[in-house]
Amino acid sequence: MSSSSPSPTAAAAAAAAGPDYETLANRFRPIFAKIAEGASRREQDHQLPFAEIRELASAGFGAVRVPVAHGGAGASLPQLFRLLTELAAADTNIPQALRGHFAFVEDRLVSSGAQREVWLERFARGEIAGNSWTEVGTVKIGDVITKVSPDPASGEGNFLVNGTKYYSTGSIFADWIDTFAQRTDDGTKVIAVVNAHQPGVVHSDDWDGFGQRTTGSGTSTFTDAVVESENVIDFGTRFKYQTAFYQAVLLAVLAGSIHGAERDIADEVRRRTRIFSHGNADSFAADPQILQVVGQVSARAYAAEAVVERAAQALQGAYEAAFGDDLVEEEHRNDLAELETAQAQVILTELATRATSDIFDALGASGTSTGKNLDRHWRNARTAASHNPWVFKARIVGDWVVNGATPPRVWSIGAGPKADLAAK
């Protein structure tokens, strides 16, 4: 690390407050507005937002958490999640597509060594990271099929990655892919950061969910994909609040979906000329019952934004603790971040799915027109809320409240023991 560069500890202190939010957000709001204009059409035509994500990256959006000294904006975590909520109001698919990128940025921020600066400079140049963690098929919980092997032919200590991943959200847009794998030489579980621009990496946009259709999620296949030794990172060093961070991005997606529904319902009500004979006013925009529905949706958007802010503050506390020397306090703050994002998920699932459904109470049958595509708000919210099932999170929170049980911070998905019995 050069003597002119601030230490990670100094950068953490600076990021506690971050820049003026309105100044920061105004850099990106014109891009957000353009994204909102094309969101419905992109979904209907299944057009992935390559241009939109590239424009955001070129404008420095992917580097908002990078310290100013390294070419970023030096934003705090609450500021990042406010920005992601604004972006989600424009198009909920894009912040989810960038979820893996911001998680990898966070991991590099709390790391140490020469590679930290290398990555921060890459982010500042507009390079984007994707995400490939979930194994395909009936892999058992805890097993990792994707392998990282030494490449004896390279002569440079490089490795080769082989395997297939699903739910590779954002990888199709990425320059680098944050890939969970296992080394064949020593069995260590690692993050292999693979350059996406090589023949050994193939993406398929085969996510078939009824919502979040343009996140670019799907299958990523690695066939002797080269990864440099310095980009094979021990998973044990991963930033401790990663699961809470991933969940918080989905919280921003849910909050943004309510804001998007609020925007579109208000526009529809404002422009509508037809009224019901048994209504309450000479115009739809003056009918008190219709205004009540819009007001309730708006109130839920307000509450959702406040919930995201509270969860982001907990994450900020975990981030700052990573640079301290009190391990007990650090563990406590990481547990709080996990618990608060879980609590937020439970309540935001209900808020978002209710609000994005209630918009139709104000519009009648005409609101269900496929041309209007207003159902995308509910479909997107329902899909985002289905990740990491909230029912398990509610139980974990309850166990903490009643029994003081520590929440799990790293977990996985895979085939259970009954799958073995069924195969016999």
UniProtKB/TrEMBL annotation:
Domain Acyl-CoA dehydrogenase/oxidase N-terminal: 34-127
InterPro entries found in the cross-reference section: Acyl-CoA_DH_C, Acyl-CoA_Oxase/DH_mid-dom_sf, AcylCo_DH-like_C, AcylCoA_DH/ox_N, AcylCoA_DH/ox_N_sf, AcylCoA_DH/oxidase_NM_dom_sf
Cross-referenced Pfam families: Acyl-CoA_dh_2 (PF08028), Acyl-CoA_dh_N (PF02771)
Domain annotation Acyl-CoA dehydrogenase C-terminal: ranges: 259-388
Record keywords, A-Z: Oxidoreductase
Annotated TM spans: none
Keyword Oxidoreductase found: yes
Protein name per the record: Acyl-CoA dehydrogenase family protein
